[in-house]
Design goal:
The complex is a heterodimer of chains A (326) and B (255). By secondary structure, chain A is of the alpha/beta class. Chain A is 39% helix and 28% strand. Chain A is built from twelve helices and 14 strands. Chain A starts with a strand and ends with a helix. At the A-B interface, helix 2, helix 3 and helix 12 of A face helix 1 and helix 4 of B.
């Protein structure tokens, strides 16, 4: 087995609506793999198929070498899942929730006990072990769910929108836990998100998904470099012509573009070029009012591939969910 | 992985037990209505109750019926608790575990049966205080076995309904058009022979009729049918509803 996950022509239709459309991807062992896309892009549907909660309409997929339809039980034993919506028993304590989980996965008593301490330690909830889950905050509950996903030492951990609805600080904590467990526990992580920063910060590789299709797949850095270089924008009072001559003299300036008193330069590592640009402008007697830098983001990558901004997209997820409920 | 996984079944059972004993108010809440039925109907109707088998006090006649009622309500709700788990998301946690659906059904049933039978036995205590005369120890032990059968029958029914419903909206419908008719037609409160002919037929297809009758036979010796016939019919119903419940649960979607 080469890859942690491999899909071939995965398709899922709900009453004629295509939620996942011919998805081919392979997730390497040990990596943090991100599925990035707007709500309703089909991320959760992919996760649900890979975690055996939904059967694909067409195509096949293997998780840790096991076929997701023919070997459902084998798949289930080697994965952990953190669902998008809460899935804990609020009437049980943290320890009891984990104990239940361990037993369901056939872990013997003393191993369960050791492991509960370990995973609670990992997400820093050890002192809350005997508190009822209904008294947990959203962030704590999510941390416990991550701990539970790891409890039975899965090879692959699926996290469906793990930081949805959490505040920025909690989100960063969760990222730290995910990195930590990816490193310490040697678990392959598949995460869905519609937050660019999350995909950019956390993932080794990202698949950008739109309308059920993978439109791009690579490391965040490569994806962003496909968009091209950074943009340095100067607000200039006068002397545009002189400035053009001076700046185009630098070999690292890839393009020069002026309009309405603004000059846009395409350059690599724009931050470090600011002093040179300002200095050159001064020497040429050009007065600069302001300088700003724009580095390509995954948002730009999404825009490039789909022609839309990710934030525009809402509503279709609800439709898919409504169709699935029937 | 085996179809029958005792460890997972135990885990599911244990969860139900922890929840049951943790929610003290629910225990009290589930014991109170049958207690009131027993206390007020048992005393209030004692003079009016006609045509109960000769030589049997109404309280003796009523107590097994009220146990049947307790089992009916508690078990149907236990079967339908799948809906709560779906509502609170915990069902996914169960469904994604490497445990067969059969083991999940058995675990839930074990938990539900234990709760219901405990409640049934608890309600016997005030009954005895009010003058119910238990026939003997053998009858008592047999009645516990019958309680298990009755309980499993209605857990199957609850599970079947819960598997076909997506949320709690159909709940009151089930309550009013399934549970109450089953209770009132079962002869828990009065002999089914008192009912007019066409309605009596409905009583005869009500599994609880046989459950209550067999309980009456074992506890106070006031059965209208032979206990063995009651038990066989009840066991048949139990096997049927459990099979249907398990099948529909197996077929239901998680989301």
């Amino acid at each position: 087995m080469e890859h942690a996950i491999e899909t071939r022509g995965l398709i899922k239709r709900f009453d004629g609506l295509v939620a996942v459309d011919d998805v081919n991807l392979s997730v390497r062992r040990g990596e943090i793999f991100g599925l990035l896309g707007p709500n309703g892009a089909g991320k959760s549907t992919i996760i649900k198929m890979l975690t055996t909660m939904l059967r694909p309409t067409e195509g096949e997929a293997y998780v840790w070498g096991h076929h997701i339809v023919r070997e459902r039980d084998a798949v289930r034993s080697c994965i952990g899942v953190v669902f998008q919506d809460p899935s804990v028993d609020g009437k049980l304590t943290a320890r009891e929730n984990l104990d239940f989980h361990g037993r369901m996965y056939g872990m013997p008593g003393d191993e369960r006990k050791r492991r509960i301490a370990e995973v609670l330690e990992l997400v820093e909830l050890y002192d809350k072990a005997d508190v009822l889950l209904e008294e947990f905050s959203g962030g704590m509950r999510r941390r416990l769910e991550i701990a539970r996903g790891l409890m039975h030492r899965p090879h692959v951990l699926f996290l469906d929108e793990p930081t949805l609805g959490l505040d920025t600080q909690t989100r960063r904590y969760i990222w730290d836990y995910i990195r930590k467990m990816n490193g310490e526990e040697d678990v392959t992580v598949v995460i869905t998100t519609h937050y660019m920063e999350e995909a950019d910060n956390l993932c080794n590789r990202v698949a950008i998904i739109d309308h059920g299709r993978i439109v791009a797949l690579d490391t965040p850095i490569s994806l962003k470099s496909m968009i091209g270089t950074d943009t340095l924008t100067l607000e200039v009072r006068d002397g545009l012509e002189r400035l053009r001559d001076v700046l185009l003299g630098f070999e690292w300036v890839r393009s020069f573009d002026a309009s309405n008193g603004y000059v846009r330069l395409s350059v690599d590592s724009a931050q470090s070029r600011i002093p040179e640009v300002v200095l050159a402008a001064c020497r040429a007697g050009v007065r600069i009012k302001s300088v700003s830098v724009h580095e390509p983001t995954l948002e730009d990558v999404f825009l490039r591939y789909t022609g839309r901004s990710m934030r525009d997209e809402t509503g279709k997820g609800d439709l898919v969910r409504a169709l699935m409920r029937r | 992985m085996r179809a029958f996984d005792p460890y997972a079944i135990y885990s599911l059972w244990l969860r139900e037990m922890i929840r049951f004993f943790r929610l003290k108010s629910r225990v009290v809440g589930s014991i109170a209505p049958p207690f009131f039925f027993l206390a007020f109907l048992g005393t209030g109707f004692s003079g009016m109750a006609s045509r109960v088998p000769a030589g049997v006090d109404y309280i003796n006649y009523l107590a097994p019926g009220i146990i049947g009622m307790t089992l009916l309500f508690s078990s149907t709700f236990a079967g339908m608790s799948v809906l709560w788990d779906r509502e609170f998301g915990f069902l996914r946690e169960i469904m994604v575990a490497p445990v067969t659906r059969l083991s999940i059904v058995l675990g839930r049933t074990a938990g539900g049966v234990t709760q219901a039978v405990l409640q049934g036995i608890i309600i016997l205590i005030p009954g005895i205080a009010m003058g119910v005369k238990i026939k003997g120890l053998t009858g008592l032990i047999l009645s516990v076995a019958l309680m298990v059968l009755i309980s499993a029958t209605f857990i199957g029914v609850g599970l079947a309904f819960a598997s076909r419903m997506k949320d709690m909206s159909g709940f009151s419908l089930i309550m009013n058009f399934m549970i109450f008719p089953v209770f009132l037609l079962s002869g828990a409160l009065f002999p089914v022979q008192n009912l007019p002919e066409p309605v009596r037929i409905l009583s005869y297809i009500d599994p609880l009729t046989y459950g209550v009758d067999a309980l009456r036979g074992c506890l106070v010796g006031a059965n209208s049918f032979p206990i063995i016939i009651d038990t066989l019919l009840l066991a048949g119903c139990c096997a049927a509803t459990m099979a249907i419940g398990a099948y529909l649960f197996e077929m239901s979607d998680v989301d």
